[in-house]
Amino acid sequence: MDMPLTAASSELSFPIEDVLLADIYDGNRLREIEPAWAEAMAASIDQGARMPPVVLRRPDAREGIVQSYALVAGGHRVAAYRLLGRVSIRAEISTYDALQARLAEVQENLVRHDLNALDRALFIAEHKRVWELLNPDAGRGGDRRSKGAVKRQSLHFGPRRFTDEMAEKCGLGERTVKYALALSASLDPEAIRLLRGSSIARNNSELQRLAAQPTERQVRLAKLLIDGTADTVAKARIAAGDAPTGEGDPQEELFRRIVSNWQRLDAKGRKRFMEHAGLVADRKAGA
Known about the structure:
The protein has helices spanning 35-46, 75-83, 98-110, 117-134, 147-154, 162-170, 174-186, 189-195, 204-211, 215-226, 233-240, 250-264, 267-276, 283-286; strands spanning 16-20, 24-25, 54-57, 69-73, 88-93. Among the domains are: 16-96, Conserved hypothetical protein from pyrococcus furiosus pfu- 392566-001, ParB domain, CATH 3.90.1530.10; 201-244, no CATH class; 250-286, no CATH class. The longest helix is centred in the middle third of the chain and has 18 residues, at 117-134. The chain has a five-stranded mixed sheet. The protein is α/β, with parallel strands linked by helices and 287 residues long. Helix 1 packs across helix 2 and helix 3 (98-110) runs antiparallel to helix 4 (117-134). Helices cover 51% and strands 8% of the residues.
């Protein structure tokens, strides 16, 4: 469920106090509140369940936030308390600035196991954006014209890499991170908006297929997936008139695989296939 920061709270200890819910700004979140989740949490709290404090920060005046505090972690807990009509909530008052708070919010979600494939890709991309702002020299290896600098880069000496950070803080491997960043970068922003919270958002294979389409087609295909016209990208392409004839037909797919494999067979392999299919006489059978 909506739990405290794993990466941050293990390293820092902040003062805890009761804060009025009216004094907490909880907008501009990466992940929207799921009403059913908030309601379930509210029911649990109402029955006496104890929740860890939420994490807050004091916003900078330049941010234009009128409330005294901005939420860092614990959106569903705040929503649950509001559903119950509570006036205040226990909170850790952090010393994070806006960027540090964003990084903590991302890390809190990435260590969870209930993120769908799309949200995970978006959170990793946001983590990279914020992390690079906080670590402008990380991974650049200094002067790339220097032979010594090049050697140090190849040995991964010097500045810390983003993938190292992800492995340590969130337990994600380099390959997972690279695939997620590629997916996030390839999807049209409007297509992302349409797909968030949908069944397709949980299907990494279908997301990859959509990302492989030209960006100008992705929104049209996403709409067909969301309105129920199609349940796969292949079927959405057929409905949109973008797919070659026969795409999405299992028999057509089998035929194409046979043709592809046939083209890779040598003369001996082709002859074996012909004999197996009964297209030529089997010499062994006739002997």
